[in-house]
Amino acid sequence: KASGGDSRAALRETESALKKMPKVSGSGAGQVYLAPEMARVFDAAQKLAEKAGDSFVSAERLLQALAVEQSEVAKILKNAGVTAQGLNQAINAIRKGR
Predict the structure, then answer these.
(1) pLDDT at position 15, please?
(2) What pLDDT, on the 0 to 100 scale, is given for residue 97?
(3) Contact residues for 42 (Cβ-Cβ < 8 A; gap 6+)
(4) Shortest CA distance to 88 belongs to which of 61, 69, 70?
(5) How far is CA 97 from CA 27, 45, 46, 52, 73, in A?
(6) Among candidates 85, 55, 51, 52, which has minimal Cα distance to 67?
(7) pLDDT at residue 26 above 80?
(8) Does the predicted model carry a pTM greater than 0.85?
(9) Cα end-to-end span (Å), the chain
């Protein structure tokens, strides 16, 4: 909300998108695979954290990276009025320089 977005709209769209995703079952269900898109998100989050002078990647930088990287999540956030710039401003305001 602090970034100017509608969190409820983002949640609704996220839940709808998750319902459309394929499910894994059976003996391989415990295996975790990282999609290339998610690897890019983690990389972007690390770069955002470094740029901000953070010593580790926080949840808010992961959220900001999700808004930056081209993906279904970025579309959901954009539709809800959330931008990477708005998130950065909200993060900085909440942290107050910390």
Answers:
(1) 93
(2) 67
(3) 57, 62, 65
(4) 61
(5) 48, 19, 19, 10, 28
(6) 85
(7) no
(8) no
(9) 20
